[in-house]
From TrEMBL:
It comes from Deminuibacter soli. Keywords: Carboxypeptidase, Hydrolase, Protease, Signal. One of its GO terms (molecular function) is carboxypeptidase activity. InterPro entries: CarboxyPept-like_regulatory. Residues 1-23 form the signal peptide. SUPFAM superfamilies: Carboxypeptidase regulatory domain-like (SSF49464). Coiled coil: none annotated. It comes from the Bacteria. This is Carboxypeptidase-like regulatory domain-containing protein.
Amino acid sequence: MKKILQYAFCLLLTGCFIVKTQAQQVIPKDSVIQLFGVVMTADSLRAIPAASILVQGAGRGTLTNDQGVFSIAVLQGQKIRFSCVGFKDVVINIPDKVVDNQYYVIQLLVSDTAYLPATILKPRPSREQFERDFANTRIPNDQYEIARQNIDEAKRRVLLATLPADGREAVNAQLRQQASKLYYQGQQPPINILNPAAWSEFIKAWKRGDFKSKNDD
């Protein structure tokens, strides 16, 4: 009987310890607060968009909107880090006792200037040295092949017939394509195989040798 009472007493102590441990792990509702505010520059008081608000030790955070406004749920006593590219980081502490479970802050960030090492640009001392360096520049073999293809006469004719000459012509070609697409919207566009103008362009290209094979050379 005595052993049974001792065993029951040990179980009771163990249960009390487990309940106490679980109670300590539960976060009280009063400790959760809503942190909100605005992040601005310290010199001109302008809103900083896309600034990071990170809860240290929690692995979570948020970003400010276009007006620099943010809102995030945190715990009392936590540390909040404000950071943004081009500004110095700022860390604040949430008070242990906050009224109405809300905390408002206007955080000012100071600009952080990054000084890069000086770069000095110097011209070529002479034309002879430029020609020497240009002639000794090593070019991969595939670049030679691309250059050889670009100077091919048949390819240059095809590019001349297909590519626009300048920006204005490119815009006009795009507008003509859009107009043609909208004109034939909801119906079958015409087939160029029955178009005399298309046949005329094909015959001219064939006579110029645009479709001539390289092996025939």
